[in-house]
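Input/output pair, single chain:
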Amino acid sequence: MSKKDEFLYEVRIVERNILEGKLSKKDYEKHLASLPDVEEKGEPLVIEEDEVSSEEELDQVEEEISE
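Output:
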């Protein structure tokens, strides 16, 4: 697949390409079905909360605004 062809399937613009007729929905679904399953390579994403509570942050913002 050429770089130009890969660009047609770019997730950020694929809907536009389908609407403009550059790519058919059937071809896009066929492309998705051909992709390998890489689930086992994934890692869990852990998001830790900041130590500062939301109330403290709100108080700081209100103080900055009032100054």
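DSSP finds four helices and no strands in the chain. Helices lie at 3-8, 14-19, 25-34, 54-66.
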